[in-house]
From TrEMBL:
Name of the protein: Serine phosphatase RsbU (Regulator of sigma subunit)/anti-sigma regulatory factor (Ser/Thr protein kinase)
InterPro entries: Bact_Sigma-Reg, GAF, GAF-like_dom_sf, HATPase_C_sf, HATPase_dom, PPM-type-like_dom_sf, PPM-type_phosphatase-like_dom
SMART domains, alphabetized: GAF (SM00065), PP2C_SIG (SM00331)
Keyword terms: Hydrolase
Organism in which the protein naturally occurs: Actinomadura coerulea
GAF domain residues: 204-340, 361-503
Record field: compositional bias (Gly residues): 175-190
Stretches assigned to the PPM-type phosphatase domain: 524-751
Pfam families xrefs: GAF, HATPase_c_2, SpoIIE
């Protein structure tokens, strides 16, 4: 791959959007630019979606390294259609406002045949590259960041409006109260700050804390210094430490145990170990100052000494000024990490949507939903489905620890029914399970659980239930993302359910259009093959039949004549199925009236023409089989109405056509048909196929090109009828790399 440029072309298909995302992510990973991958993937996803939804053409994605920037362009083949802008010109869909939020710069270029939209992202570490979070943090708020997300035109617009709430801390009833400084730490410790784990995930925050610790030791001449960060439950954890502070483990310390000065947002000095912070750090004296973020306590910066009374009020004031500077740096890093995290989540939701849209199997869809949730959002997940016959059925269970899955399933089966609510919320159904079942699963019985309804097309079709251990609280962002995922999963599950119902109905209809069985014909081996195209969601237009016609069913004498037919109705679906049913049943009824083969085709032609607009063109090969007097084969009188000609294979390997072409049915009235006679002697084979065989495609070649079917049949010399049918069927399957897009039907008659 070229180090500077990589290009790929994708078709105009929904699956191509996911392929384009994977291409961009791989290119950036190969170039060592993973830090900009999430932004690049999201922007590419929207532009690729525009190319398919609005241009309706194939599109090309190009990645380039341009100086200090990464430039990506999506170019489609429809330059005359304007670019849709949600909220400006488009009534729905994705547009370019979100590209403006994500990219450093962007634009549109045209040539005679194509239109391209490009965007540029700053390369990590490039001179002048500014973190998007700086603007948001400059005024000490996240409003700019969340407003940008909310204004974008894609899934970011759906989730971004919630980012404000997600950025807020989860209030915990266990948090302690305190006297707050007016206008700043309003509510004191009751307003618990953002969890410190986000800062620990940010390289910029870690660097800022390490620099602050080193500066505090130098300015105050302290033996050690540390930055303590707050958690959602009010505990303080070690963020960074140096000197003696790094050598001693942090004891139990929480916001509730801090001094009134700390809760008021002021720096303080402690002369001995009576101070809780000094005791937790095993220091004889300390100077400390709070780190604040939007009026909430983020943490503390402390300097410690093994000597009592080592620090004075001036040291506290100096540390307070250092804390103010560090608070701003940590806030920038925190907002940057928040934005990076949300972009990662949004990329996850977009890719999850493609995965869910990529399957129409109901069981697989539910399994995919559970495995998307675990372990990213929850420790375990269960999916319930609702039908008219079964109000709430536990359909799938998945646990991060596979050994616990069986116990979890048993617990859920004995627990209360999934909540039939229309809104997400906490669920305490596990508490209703019998004590012996709860005891068998251990701590899982006390997990905290949330339930999310699966609502599609205005009705509830199921419920997703997720759980985490009791001590591992669900962050608000995880709950909101699970809610978003449940909405997308509901539509995917409902689509899979509808597809399954349609497939079952189509399969039943298809079976009704095929003969119930093949009769035994003395002196003749009969083999048939029928393979509908696609996944069974539509009824095919091909059909076949073999039946007795010499006597009426139930007559006293055995049959002396038999009929066979193989046909192909133009098109698929209900309209084709109607003509298929008409043709097959009419053939049997007319043959029972002892009409000749040409007379049957003439009557059937008039019947199809009488259907008017509902009629369809029909190619048909119809013949009558009669035993020869010497019993050395059979005589076949047949008519080929627009159908691929039947082939006869003799025992020496010669192949010849056995019928002359005649007009197909459903076009002209008053057509007169005639028969061709085939004396099929012992060892000879008659092969009748539909165009799904002769027109099987491999690139620009067809199986029937250049007498391909004749050569294939010639290789079947000496085989039984069943073996000939199997070899032709296998050859059709193996001819092209892609599955056939046409039905395949064939009849093999071999005189024995």
């Amino acid at each position: 791959m070229d180090r500077q440029t990589a290009t790929a072309t994708f078709p105009s298909a929904a699956a191509a959007v996911a392929d384009a995302r994977r291409f961009v992510r791989k290119v950036l990973a190969d170039w060592g630019l993973d830090e900009v991958a999430d932004d690049a993937v999201l922007a590419t996803s929207e532009l690729a979606t525009n190319a398919i939804a609005y241009a309706g053409t194939s599109f090309e994605v190009s990645c380039r390294l341009a100086g200090g920037d990464v430039e990506i362009e999506v170019r489609d083949r429809h330059p005359t259609r304007g670019i849709e802008m949600p909220g400006v010109t488009a009534s729905s869909g994705r547009g370019l406002p979100s590209i403006a939020r994500l990219a450093d710069s962007w634009g549109v270029s045209y040539d005679r045949r194509t239109k391209g939209v490009w965007f540029r992202l700053p390369r990590p570490g490039a001179t002048g590259a500014a973190a998007p979070a700086e603007g948001a943090a400059a005024d000490g708020t996240e409003a700019a960041f969340t407003a940008d997300i909310a204004g974008s035109g894609s899934v970011r617009g759906e989730l971004g409006a919630r980012a404000r709430d997600a950025a807020e801390p989860v209030r915990d009833a266990s948090g302690a109260g305190g006297q707050g400084r007016e206008g700043e730490l309003a509510g004191g410790a009751g307003e618990l700050p953002v969890a410190g784990d986000r800062l620990l995930r940010s390289p910029a925050a870690v660097e800022a804390m390490e620099d602050g610790v080193a500066t505090a030791r130098e300015v105050l001449g302290a033996e050690g210094a540390a930055v303590l960060l707050t958690e959602r439950d009010g505990r303080l954890i070690m963020g960074s430490a140096a000197g003696t502070a790094a050598e001693m483990p942090l004891g139990e310390l929480s916001v509730a145990s801090l001094t009134p000065a700390a809760r008021a947002g002021s720096a303080w000095v402690a002369a001995d170990t009576s101070d809780p912070t000094a005791a937790a750090l095993r220091a004889s004296s300390l100077a400390a100052a709070p780190l604040e973020s939007q009026g909430r306590l983020t943490g503390l910066i402390v300097a410690v000494s093994s000597l009592s009374g080592r620090f004075d009020e001036a040291d506290g004031a100096r540390l307070g000024r250092l804390a103010d500077e560090m608070s701003l740096s940590l806030e920038k890093a925190r907002v940057g990490e928040l934005e990076r995290s949300w972009r990662g989540w949004l990329s996850f939701v977009a890719e999850a949507s493609d995965l869910l849209a990529g399957t129409l199997d109901q069981e697989r869809t539910m399994a995919l939903v559970a495995q998307l949730v675990v372990p990213r959002l929850a420790t375990w997940c269960a999916v319930y489905t609702v039908t008219e016959a079964e109000p709430d059925r536990l359909a799938y269970v998945w646990h991060a620890d596979e050994e616990r899955s069986d116990g979890l399933r048993e617990l859920l089966e004995h627990a209360g029914a999934a909540p039939p609510t229309d809104a997400p919320g906490a669920w305490n159904g596990l508490a209703t399970a019998p004590e012996d079942v709860r005891a068998a699963v251990g701590d899982t019985a006390t997990d905290q659980v949330y339930a999310f309804p699966l609502i599609a097309r205005g009705r509830r079709i199921g419920t997703i239930v997720i759980g985490r251990p009791a001590g591992d609280r669900f962050p608000r962002s995880a709950i909101e993302l699970a809610e978003e995922l449940s909405r997308r999963a509901a539509l995917a599950v409902d689509n899979a359910r509808l597809f399954s119902a349609q497939t079952a109905m189509s399969s039943a209809l298809q079976r009704s259009l095929l003969p119930p069985g093949i009769p035994e014909i003395p002196g003749l081996e009969v083999a048939v093959v029928y393979e509908p195209a696609g996944e069974g969601s539509e009824v095919g237009g091909d059909f076949y039949d073999v039946f007795a016609s010499g006597t009426r069913p139930g007559g006293p004498a055995p049959a002396s004549r038999w009929r066979f037919a193989i046909g192909d109705v133009c098109g698929t679906g209900p309209e084709a199925a109607a003509v298929t049913g008409l043709a097959r049943h009419a053939l049997r009824i007319l043959a029972a009236e002892d009409l000749s083969v040409p007379a049957v085709l003439a009557r059937l032609n008039r019947l199809i023409l009488g259907e008017g607009e509902r009629g369809r063109l029909l190619t048909l090969l119809h013949g009558e089989i009669a035993a020869r007097r010497r019993r050395d084969g059979v005589t076949i009188k047949l008519t080929s109405a627009g159908h691929p000609p039947p082939l006869v294979l003799d025992p020496e390997g010669g192949v010849r056509e056995a019928a002359s072409p005649q007009p197909l049915l459903g076009v002209f009235d008053g057509v007169e048909f005639h028969t061709d006679t085939v004396e099929l002697r012992r060892g000879e084979v008659l092969l009748c196929v539909t165009d799904g065989v002769t027109e099987r495609r491999s690139g620009n070649r067809l199986l029937g090109d250049g007498h391909g079917l004749e050569r294939l049949l010639a290789d079947c010399t000496g085989l039984s009828a069943g073996a000939v049918a199997a070899r032709i069927q296998r050859a059709v399957r193996d001819f092209g790399p892609e599955p056939s897009n046409d039905d395949v039907a064939l009849i093999v008659l071999r005189a024995s």
